[in-house]
Structures are given as structure tokens and as C-alpha cells.
């Protein structure tokens, strides 16, 4: 999926994506789940690599799902 990440980074990012999807009550394999993955990957690439922070930092999709 993300060939530029090593296995530890990939596991960390995957756990953060799964946690966020559970929190938002969406399936990771849905379009919304892909949007979560994309936003968290962008955060990761910008230097946010702490799993807890990735799991809790606000993302745009949350506003849409919670207020839409």
C-alpha cells in the first residue's frame, strides 16, 4: 500500500487509521475510510509520526461526519 514506509511505520499508521475509523464508526475499506487514511498519511508525511497523535489529531472528515 505505502511502499515508502518501513514495516514499523506501516503498522503504526495502520493502527491509527483503524482506531480513527472505529471512533468515526466507519469501515476502513469504505470511501470514508480511504479519506481517513489519506488524511492521516498526509499528517504522517508532514512529520506527525506519534501513533497517539495520529489517532486523535483533528481531521477534516470528522467535521463532515459529525456535523453533516
Summarize the structure.
With 68 residues, this protein is mainly α. It contains four helices and no strands.
What string, H for helix and E for strand, traces the elements in order? HHHH
Mean pLDDT: 87
Measured between the Cα atoms of the first and last residue, the distance is: 30 Å
Rounded Rg: 11 Å
What's the helical proportion of residues? 55-70%
The helix/strand class is mainly alpha
Per the principal axes of the C-alpha atoms, what is the gross shape? globular
Strand content: under 5%
Largest sheet: none
Tally of strands: 0
* Count of all domains: 1
Total helices: the number is 4
Low-pLDDT segments: none
Question: How are the SSEs ordered, and which strands pair?
Answer:
Elements (H helix, E strand, L loop, with lengths): L6 H18 L6 H15 L5 H6 L3 H8 L1
Helix pairs in contact: 1-2
Written overview of the protein:
The protein starts with 6 loop residues before the first helix and ends with a helix. The radius of gyration is 11 Å and the shape is globular. The chain has 68 residues and is mainly α. The longest helix is centred in the N-terminal third of the chain and has 18 residues, at 7-24. 69% of the residues lie in helices and 0% in strands. The protein has one domain. The chain is built from four helices and no strands.
Amino acid at each position: 500500500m505505502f511502499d515508502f514506509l518501513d514495516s514499523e511505520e506501516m503498522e503504526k499508521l495502520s493502527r491509527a487509521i483503524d482506531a480513527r475509523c472505529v471512533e468515526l464508526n466507519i469501515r476502513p475499506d469504505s470511501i470514508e475510510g480511504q479519506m481517513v487514511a489519506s488524511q492521516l498519511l498526509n499528517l504522517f508525511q508532514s512529520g506527525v509520526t506519534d501513533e497517539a497523535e495520529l489517532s486523535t489529531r483533528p481531521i477534516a472528515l470528522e467535521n463532515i461526519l459529525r456535523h453533516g
